[in-house]
Amino acid sequence: MREKAEQPTSKPLRGKLNCEQRNQLKATLLTNSEGRLLLIGVAVAFTYTVWLLAKLFLAPEEFQVLVGITATAIIFGRAAGMAFGYSIGMGHGTVITVCIIIETIQVLVFYPLFVFSWRHLLVINRLKNIFERMQRAAEKHKGKVQRYGVIGLFAFVWFPFWMTGPVVGSVIGFLLGLRAWVNMTVVLAGTYVAIFCWAFFLHRLHKQVAAYSSYASLILMAVLISIILLGNFLVRRRQKKSQIR
Predict the structure, then answer these.
(1) 216 in any annotated domain
(2) Is residue 165 within 8 Å of residue 111, measured between CB atoms?
(3) Number of domains into which the chain is organized
């Protein structure tokens, strides 16, 4: 494991790319590990989108459910997305599969884009604030993870604590100097184990609360979303205070 990721040395590329910059980016996508990961992530996202569109015509009701799980998981996280799926009666097969696809896409897309931004190969202004928050969160937890190496990174992604998701975990792996394939293997393995753990817990909890009322599952999902929103608010407020100081 290298001590830290290589620091960027060139100026960032902003706005429209000229011919030389486009050629450099194309070469990076084909020859660089992060570039290939991005291409895989885009391919998976495209395939998933086509599958959803097929469901729109073949099974409209199932399409609505899948879109609901997808949107909830993207906006509020895996726990809320899975809780939504179980609350409307979906089984493990659908809920787990959708969450695995969504989180895999997020890692395979945002991790390479973060690396490109870090190395100043490509800077997307609309994602700049997101990447800065990811970097701050990663640097905050980097020391704890570094102490235990890849096991620490796996645990960081797996444990359901705040700001311990797979995307931030992949950034920590990059800052620690892990090779891309090692980083992705550890992060995605931790993510999949976490999804299965959440599935077991939430499905069992859904069965228990559903015995009391048909609306109990929806109330549980609303509580989870409220906790997530409150947590995000408190984290951002703390970050703003630390920046002022």
Answers:
(1) yes
(2) no
(3) 1
Question: CB-based contacts of 185: which residues, under 8 Å, 6+ apart?
Answer: none
| Burial category of 209 from C-beta neighbours within 10 Å (exposed 0-12, middle 13-18, buried 19 and up) | middle
Q: Is 13 domain-assigned?
A: no
Please write down the long-range contacts of 38-44, taking CB distance under 8 Å and 24 or more positions apart: 38/108, 38/109, 38/112, 38/113, 40/108, 41/104, 41/105, 41/107, 41/108, 41/109, 41/112, 42/109, 44/101, 44/104, 44/105, 44/108
> What integer best gives the mean pLDDT of the chain?
81
pTM of the shown model:
0.80
Domain hosting residue 37, numbered range: 19-244
pLDDT digits (tens, 9 = 90+) for 32-45: 889 899 999 999 99
pLDDT at res. 26:
67
Distance CA 11, CA 155 (A): 35
User: Sorting pLDDT into bands at 50, 70 and 90, what band is 234?
Assistant: low
Q: Contact at 8 Å (CB) between 204 and 73?
A: no
State the CB neighbour count (10 A cutoff) for residue 86: 25
Element housing 179 (H / E): none
Cα radius of gyration rounded to whole Å, the chain: 19
pLDDT digits (tens, 9 = 90+) for 218-229: 676 677 777 766
Handedness of CA 188, 194, 197, 203 (dihedral sign): negative
State pLDDT tens for residues 196-211: 998 998 888 777 776 6
Q: For residue 134, tell me if it sits in a domain.
A: yes
